[in-house]
Design goal:
Helix content is 33%, strand content 17%. By secondary structure, it is of the alpha/beta class. The protein has a 7-stranded parallel beta sheet, sandwiched between helices. Strands 6-5-7 form a 3-stranded antiparallel beta sheet. Helix 7 packs parallel to helix 8.
């Protein structure tokens, strides 16, 4: 069933007084100025894969040069009404957990405490050799010192928090301060697997959930869609709120073709 009117009423009719397990996607953060990959009107994009990133210095230089310039926008992004509404619902005891496919950390910034960052966080950096995890803000300062003249204005911000830029050959990389190894954002790149412990934590949340609410996700990626399939197999209500079709629509008890903030604010 798909509805685009009286969305809050329809949501209440399906969920009743059940506690929600929430799964969020990129559509939740578009109101914070972070573009998504597959929303209506989104251009076709080819993000860097994990294999490409690990292929050598040229690929890592390209990634970090673009990410260095994009961080001024991504790092300054603020939670929107959807983030704050979910934090309020958690405080009121209405949520049993929150799984996000986003890497922007905005749910935590908004005040949500019980968050599983399925694909990691862009505000953390990990060394590929010693696996030391450090703050992205610290790396940003180091990169700025190494590249004082590397600036550009008016570049398109991309969904991964980087910018559309081809001229990156002059960018100077910073290595791990602990061991000198290569640094990577602490996120799951396309083509990489979500860490098993994180998947198990999410599977346990779905196993105990009374209802699953999907917000702002096309469910194109299996890493999130698997939990919708698990909920469907359990027979619990599934509500999907997303502008446009998703790959889980046939499993939904209710599909709302609407903005997330519009539904939660009702």
């Amino acid at each position: 069933m798909t509805l685009s009117t009286s969305a809050p009423t329809a949501l209440d009719d399906v969920l009743g007084d059940r506690r929600w397990l929430v799964l969020t996607g990129a559509g939740v953060s578009t109101d914070s100025g972070i573009p998504d990959y597959r929303g209506p009107g989104a251009p076709v994009r080819a993000p860097m894969t994990g294999q490409q990133f690990r292929s050598g210095v040229p690929a890592r230089r390209r990634y970090w040069a673009r990410a260095f310039l994009g961080w001024s926008t991504m790092g300054a992004a603020a939670p929107n009404l959807t983030h704050t509404a979910l934090a309020d619902l958690e405080s009121a005891g209405r949520l049993s957990g929150l799984i996000t496919q986003n890497v922007d950390g905005l749910h935590t910034t908004a005040g949500s405490r019980d968050v599983v960052d399925l694909h990691g966080r862009l505000d953390r950096v990990i060394c590929l050799d010693c696996e030391d995890v450090t703050a992205r803000a610290d790396l940003q300062q180091r990169l700025g010192a190494l590249n004082p003249d590397f600036t550009a204005d008016g570049l398109e911000i991309l969904p991964d928090g980087d910018v559309a830029l081809d001229a990156t050959a002059s960018f100077v990389l910073a290595d791990c301060a602990r061991c000198g190894g290569p640094l990577k954002p602490d996120v799951v790149f396309f083509g990489e697997n979500v860490p098993p412990a994180r998947v198990h934590a999410c599977t346990a949340l779905v196993a105990d959930a009374e209802a699953l609410v999907v917000l702002g996700s096309s469910l194109h990626v299996f890493s999130g869609r698997r939990f919708v399939k698990q909920a469907y197999q359990r027979g619990i209500p599934i509500v999907i709120v997303n502008r446009g079709e998703t790959r889980g629509d046939d499993l939904a008890t209710l599909k709302l073709d609407a903005g997330c903030a519009d539904v939660l604010a009702g």
